[in-house]
Write a structure and sequence with these properties.
With about 325 residues, the chain is an alpha/beta fold. It contains 15 helices and nine strands. Strands 1, 2, 3, 4, 7, 8 and 9 form a seven-stranded mixed sheet that branches. Strands 5-6 form a two-stranded parallel sheet. Strand 1, helix 2 and strand 2 form a beta-alpha-beta unit. The termini are far apart.
């Protein structure tokens, strides 16, 4: 009888242990989507949530239309993870936050290679600061310059103009001031309305913002979009390191990369809403001048401690991999 009871206890303990091992952990994930619960970012994160159930994660998605509050709730521990822009994410992980460096990633072909590197397990240590870890990076498209006067098509002509800058990103204020323009502190919730209402003359934004933020209002009647990508915008899932197993975070990073084509298809659909009449072409000579200016800016911001040197070096190697004739490939400064 005693042996039977012990055997039953052992089976009970084994079953209990197995049940616990298969019980998903519950975590709160705050998601910045400027449109809110029905926005495309929330839609993509619902797909992520479905996949995450298979990794043992039961994620409660909480939408935020104010990115600053989502970031503060992450710091306060109200969120276990938060999806935010890479510029905001730089406060949590400078390496990944430097993805959005000015001119660092010229095209989506370059971005694909960089994201492949970040999704590899060997990059895990660089994406973990101890307190926070990166659980995934998704592109949000290239940022372009929107102007309310299409004649503002050179750096010289931008002098004296009012340019919206994100108040929490010191790098933008530095760059705008250096070209003689006037930085106007703004945030993601109001920069578009300031452009549409004529409070500022110039903004930088990804094309996916054109329709939902009604940027055609600010462009009308004589504005334009300078057809030269300034930087690549990213969305980054930042997690509190002690709230997720390391293996789960790596699986999430791989999920983001493996779904890259789906994300790019979505961006392409959004970008189709931009009326072709707004595009402003600039001479090839000006583009060369901008490349030099942007490299000098990256070097300056690296020395000031805003950009991560390792990420800048990775971006340069990728640029040289796709175009070995670039001068920086012979004389690397990054």
């Amino acid at each position: 009888m005693k042996k039977t009871i012990l055997a039953l206890l052992s089976i009970s303990l084994l079953l209990s242990s197995h049940a616990q091992a298969n019980t998903p952990i519950k975590r709160k994930v705050c998601v910045f989507d400027i449109i809110g619960n029905v926005g495309p970012v929330m839609g993509a994160m619902r797909d992520w949530r479905t996949a995450a159930m298979g990794w043992g994660l039961d994620a409660e998605l909480i939408p935020f239309t104010n990115e600053a509050i989502a970031a503060e709730d992450l710091k306060a521990g109200k969120c276990d993870a938060a999806l935010m822009t890479g510029i905001r994410g730089r406060d949590f992980n400078q390496y990944a936050g430097t993805l959005d460096s000015i001119g660092g990633i010229p095209s989506m072909d370059h971005m694909r290679i960089v994201l492949q590197v970040l999704a590899h397990p060997s990059s895990g240590a660089k994406l973990d600061t101890g307190s926070y870890s990166m659980m995934g990076v998704a592109p949000a498209g290239a940022a372009y310059i929107f102007v309310n006067d299409r004649n503002i098509n050179t750096l010289a002509k931008a002098a004296g103009k009012r340019v919206a800058v994100l108040e929490y990103d010191r790098t933008q204020t530095i760059l705008v001031s250096q070209i003689g323009a006037t930085p106007v502190n703004s945030d993601i919730t109001n920069f578009a309305s300031r452009f549409n209402n004529g409070v500022v003359d110039v903004i930088a934004a990804p094309l996916v913002a054109y329709a939902p933020l009604e940027l055609y209002k600010g462009l009308s009647p004589d504005g334009g979009i300078i057809n030269y990508p300034l930087a690549q915008v990213t969305m980054q899932l930042v997690a509190r390191s002690d709230r997720f197993p390391a293996e789960m975070m790596q699986t999430s990073r791989e999920y983001f990369y493996n779904n890259l084509d789906q994300i790019l298809d979505g961006l392409a659909q959004e970008e189709k809403s931009v009326d072709a009449k707004w595009w402003v072409e600039i001479p090839a000579a000006d583009k060369s001048e901008y490349e030099i200016m942007m490299q000098e800016a990256r070097l300056q911001l690296r020395e000031l401690g805003y950009y991560n040197a390792e990420m800048l070096s990775l971006q340069r190697r990728v640029r040289c991999r796709l175009n070995s004739d670039r001068a920086e490939c012979v004389n690397p400064l990054e």
